[in-house]
Amino acid sequence: MAQLTRVSGSVGLITLQNPPVNALSAAVRQGIVDTVKKAVSDPLVKCVVICGQNGVFCGGADIREFGAPMTGPPLVPMIHAIEATNKPVVAAIEGAALGGGLELALGCHYRIIHSKARVGLPEVTLGLLPAAGGSQRLPRLIGVPAALELITTGRHVSAAEALKLGIVDQVTDDNTVDTTVKFALSVVGRSLESRRISTFPCPPVSDLDAVFDVAMQRVRQSARGAIAPVTCVQAVRAAATLPYTQGMKREQELMATLFTSGQARALQYCFFAQRAVSRWSMPSGARWDTSKPRPISKAAVIGLGTMGRGIAVALAQAGLSVVAVETQEKQLMDAKQAVSGMLERGAKRRGVAPALGLVSYSHNIQAVAEADLVIEAVFEDMDLKKKVFQQLSAVCKPGTLLCTNTSSLDVDHLASQTPSPELVVGMHFFAPAHVMKLLEVVYGPRSSPQAVATAMQLGKKMGKVSVAVGNCRGFVGNRMLKPYMEQAFFLLEEGATPELVDQALEEFGFAMGVFRMSDLSGLDVGWRVRKADGLVDPDATSGRSARIRQGRRYSPLGDLLCEQGRFGQKAGRGWYQYDKPGSRVAKPDPWLHNFLEQYRARHGLGVRHIDHQEVLERCLYALINEGFRILEDGIAAGPEDIDAIYVFGYGWPRYRGGPMFYAGMVGLANVLERLEHFHQVHPDVPYLQPCSLLRRLVASGSPPIQKWREVIRKVHSQL
Ligand SMILES: CCC/C=C/C(=O)SCCNC(=O)CCNC(=O)[C@H](O)C(C)(C)COP(=O)([O-])OP(=O)([O-])OC[C@H]1O[C@@H](n2cnc3c(N)ncnc32)[C@H](O)[C@@H]1OP(=O)([O-])[O-]
């Protein structure tokens, strides 16, 4: 809705009212149309100010309405009507003017912004383009290069930058509405001819073709396979080359191709999934809205290797005081230098002062005695972690929350080393910990809801997408990665090459295929785990038995490479070869191809043609199947949790929504049918056996993903 009041005698103040962000729902659009008409026809109103209630101008079109048939007045004529009025209309921007919100403001004759507000056209992040005139007005206002950058990245811009770019006319530190009302009164009577952006020519650019070629190349490289950024470039090109009316026509045509696309649906699902994961729940019934987090002001990090350093930086950047502990003196000095450097570089990027004073360093674990929360980030070794937890229990003040940064170790087992297991949770950070958005908060059967709530809130404070998950081997992300990698190894045995598998996955949208990723993270990591699991058997060198371990098909390929010292990038060779150790450019390796041929011959394996489709189905459906098992086991509360983990932590292409959303897009019955087929061909691969939840969902008519929780609840209630 929108409300019209008359203030300061002759100013028509229109307030958008649609909590929490005054999104432009059908009712709000109707409200704007009605109130603008009323204000324009009221002789007592000399000028109009548009603002939003509760300190937010407008978060854009109401994304919740996108799936349903359009009702209410459309945005484009509404904004045109505002621009065409003969009374000055001024936008008073507080909080944010994003998407349709900024497009509304661009239809106004002037824009005043609060210094803490931001603006932007983030439609591209939702698989769309700014199709309420934004792609046509912004280039006319600020020029093609700047508009291209903002529209194709969807970046939010601070008030100061918005002023510099010319998006707004004035920045204020005072009450934005009061300032804007005064401003509006001051421009009454001035000609509006030069204030209607749609009438501006685009500022000339010397080599327009080159500008668009570079932009197109950039978006194709940075968002491989995503259609919205490419379409955004085309829309801005229309602004630069066509008269406004024709440009608007082109904008609408381009939007029509995006609006109903699968990518737009996936990206909009991701938008809500990212927010839904903060409403966590545990199988015990504990929930986000009934569990109160503890206040944390002082944190500690134990172990300052790569992960510990990143965690210390993330905590300090969130404004917490941090005690960083490393028992080795030399490591401590190196870490201090590295952490300070990271804080300085981060602060420079964000234009703030580095939080160097928030971090103190010690080689004595006693230094953590006063911490409210400790994150242990020592080497991934259960015995070592157990020792640290025992020490922490003796040192920390009562009530201190003890967190372990582990990617797969048993959080409950660690909790049992302490007298207060309810205060123990896992915090699985992803490297580099101060950069990566994902945090898995792992609760054991004895973790208290308050401990989970505190870790989740801390994650939010650090700017992470935090997902609460149950305790099991690999938690959610790494547990699902295992069948995915296993299939990739099997495909090599059956005739594929690392290049073929990686190309299929990279064309699907992953930043890196499974083998390039494995080379980057180091083959020895998995080797160590497999050794500890008793899977690496040096005696079994040939024949079928060599490829069966613990009763199931096993590929020793990764182990054989490690035995040759081929640990990946750091060794200069792994699944690929590199110019030198540490080099990042992966090149196909004839040695590896020869090795695969010999391996297949030794084991009597026939080679067959494997295409991209098979790579995708085998690798992704095995991963998805494990996702369904995770839901069935109650390790993740809903499909959004799994999807957020994969999008924010594992490079799953956001425009494909996450693995569970993707399963829904290709059709659950289709996934089930292909898994049944693959399991028939490979009966010794349990990961390919379709999970009963998947069967159940298909039997229930493959409901939309938003309804899966109902089926999951039924499964749980019958257990
Ligand atoms: C022709 C069409 C052309 C135009 C297209 C567009 O405009 S496309 C749109 C382009 N606009 C954008 O892409 C902007 C998207 N929004 C944002 O970037 C941020 O929400 C924010 C910066 C506005 C506020 O950040 P913050 O950290 O303070 O808050 P928060 O992020 O936690 O959100 C709070 C609640 O508001 C909800 N909600 C938010 N926006 C919308 C919406 N547009 N709609 C509906 N709902 C929306 C959000 O789901 C959440 O709900 P929950 O979970 O509580 O039930």
UniProtKB/TrEMBL annotation:
GO CC aspect terms: peroxisome
Enzyme Commission code: 1.1.1.35, 4.2.1.17, 5.3.3.8
3-hydroxyacyl-CoA dehydrogenase C-terminal domain residues: 474-578, 615-702
Pfam families on file: 3HCDH, 3HCDH_N, ECH_1
Any one GO molecular function term: (3S)-3-hydroxyacyl-CoA dehydrogenase (NAD+) activity
Cell location: Peroxisome
An annotated GO BP: fatty acid beta-oxidation
The protein's annotated pathway: Lipid metabolism; fatty acid beta-oxidation
Annotated ranges, domain 3-hydroxyacyl-CoA dehydrogenase NAD binding: 298-471
Major subcellular site: other
InterPro entries per UniProt: 3-OHacyl-CoA_DH_CS, 3-OHacyl-CoA_DH_NAD-bd, 3HC_DH_C, 6-PGluconate_DH-like_C_sf, ClpP/crotonase-like_dom_sf, Enoyl-CoA_hyd/isom_CS, Enoyl-CoA_hydra/iso, NAD(P)-bd_dom_sf
Record keywords: Fatty acid metabolism, Isomerase, Lipid metabolism, Lyase, Multifunctional enzyme, NAD, Oxidoreductase, Peroxisome
Coiled coil: none
Catalytic activity: (3E,5Z)-tetradecadienoyl-CoA = (2E,5Z)-tetradecadienoyl-CoA; (3S)-hydroxyhexadecanedioyl-CoA + NAD(+) = 3-oxohexadecanedioyl-CoA + NADH + H(+); (3S)-hydroxyhexadecanoyl-CoA + NAD(+) = 3-oxohexadecanoyl-CoA + NADH + H(+); a (3S)-3-hydroxyacyl-CoA + NAD(+) = a 3-oxoacyl-CoA + NADH + H(+)
Family: In the N-terminal section; belongs to the enoyl-CoA hydratase/isomerase family. Belongs to the enoyl-CoA hydratase/isomerase family.
Subunit text: Monomer.
Listed name of the protein: Peroxisomal bifunctional enzyme
Species this protein is from: Sphaeramia orbicularis
